[in-house]
Specification:
The protein has 58 residues and is mainly alpha-helical. 74% of the residues lie in helices and 0% in strands. The protein has 2 helices and no strands. Keywords: Membrane, Transmembrane, Transmembrane helix.
Amino acid sequence: MMCDNIYLKVLWVIVYAITAYYTFTGNMMMGMYWMAGGMLAQAVVDLVYHFMPGSKKC
C-alpha cells in the first residue's frame, strides 16, 4: 500500500477477513472471488492515489 490512510487499511482488513471466513467455512470459490476482487480493488485505489495531484507520496 502506498499511503498510510487508516480508513483504507481498515477496509482491506475487512475484505480479507471476509475472504478468510469464506475460505475456512468450506466455500473456497467464494473466498477466491473475494481475494481476487480485494486485490484488484486495492491495486486500483493505490493507482488512483498515486496519480492524484497533491497527494502524499509515501
